[in-house]
Amino acid sequence: MSDQEEIDVSAASRPDVRRSLAGLALAAAALGAATPAHAAVPAAVERYAPHVRIHPAETTLPTAARDLVAAAGVRWRGCRFTAGVRVADAPAAGGVHAREAALGRGRLAHRVGVGARCRYVGRPVASNLLSRPLQGGPLRARGVPLTQGFVLDLPARVRRGRAPVAGEVSAPMYFEYVPGRVVTYWFLSADSGVVVDAFDAVPPALAQVAPLLAGRRLRLHEGDWERVAVRLDATDRAVEIAYYQHGRPRVEPWAAAAGRLEDGEHPVVFSALASHASYPEAGAHRFAVATGGGTLAGTYDATADGGLRWRGERLLRDARAEGWYGFGGAWGAPAPLGESTDPRLRAARDIGPLGPGPRRGVAPCGWGATDRAGRVAPCDVPLGAGELPGL
């Protein structure tokens, strides 16, 4: 063994070197979900990558989109929001890369169910068109009923997420970047739920449901895409930050985040227990849950320090370079609550969210984000009656 080798081994016990080694281990873990087409991460994206605090009691850790795509069954949700049918998959020889490309580039298609027997003889719909059940609007694929559409059906084995490495989250943190406008950081988990306290208000359609739910931590649906967006000026300096909570952004001036930055200009973000909504501080945050049967007021998000940490700058992946980018269906089926044969519980239906893509907003309306071709990108348009964002 040479002197240089001896020095390298002994140096591994130093704190600064241990941090470097941990960073390399995390980067290697993220590359397990990588594609070779990724370019270097832009400086502004790395500069403002969040440092996320995972709740100490969290059981569903962040994961990689590739892990979910590889494990999921692809289904077409049927008439009247039934489980529907399994869709013919990409060739096995292509592996997970082929599955991702099939989803994101519209190489899978299924016909719309029609008639009382829901026969699948209607118009074919490609997987990269917006078909997520329960989500309408002008971007929805023409002729697809609100209760039908593509869904990734996730097995229970992926629910825990990616195992930590060196005591930190090892999953990729995805981003979308529009120079001089915005950078959005996406966080993916395989499950989503809420913590229920006591209901302040119960709509008539859910009057019988509330007693079954109060005081429980509930699974709402599989799959969960959460995010934080940073508004940039023409020189790529941060001017505002948006913390997303249940489909709605909480926007603050960048100056308000100044006291919550670490290791340079990385904003600290607290991920809520079960729901994974993003907050700038620890505590209890009450909100109302919109369901297919009405709105339940009295649920809350709990955020706390002391759990795993997720340093985004070490694990960044360009969402637009991923094969799955643009999949227009739901990233997850309803949890058993929504699948129940009990009509009281089926009223509380929900389904996994729409993931990153050209039909998903990247920033709050008013930020003026444009895509790479200079066209205005979709912003966060409020959903209509009966439409659910996937909490």
Q: Total domains, how many?
A: 1
Question: Helix segment count?
Answer: 8
Percent helix, as a range, is 10-25%
Described by the principal axes of the CA atoms, the overall outline is globular
Helix-and-strand structural type = alpha+beta
N/C terminus separation = 56 Å
List low-pLDDT spans.
Answer: 1-22, 27-36, 337-348, 382-391
Descriptive report:
The protein is of the alpha+beta class and 391 residues long. The chain has one domain (45-346). The protein is built from 8 helices and 18 strands. The strands form 4 sheets. Strands 7, 8, 9, 10, 11, 15, 16 and 18 form an 8-stranded mixed sheet that branches. Strands 1, 12, 13, 14 and 17 form a 5-stranded mixed sheet that branches.
Key features?
five-stranded mixed sheet, disordered N terminus, 391 residues, alpha+beta, disordered C terminus
Give a short synopsis of this structure.
With about 400 residues, this protein is of the alpha+beta class.
Can you lay out the helices and strands and say which pair or pack?
Elements: H1 3-11, H2 15-31, H3 43-47, E1 51-54, H4 65-71, E2 73-77, E3 85-86, H5 95-104, E4 109-114, E5 119-126, E6 149-153, E7 173-178, E8 182-201, H6 210-213, E9 217-232, E10 238-245, E11 248-253, E12 261-262, E13 266-271, E14 278-279, E15 283-291, E16 294-303, E17 309-311, E18 316-318, H7 336-339, H8 343-346
Parallel strand pairs: 1-13, 7-18
Antiparallel strand pairs: 1-17, 2-3, 2-6, 4-5, 7-8, 8-9, 8-16, 9-10, 10-11, 12-13, 13-14, 15-16
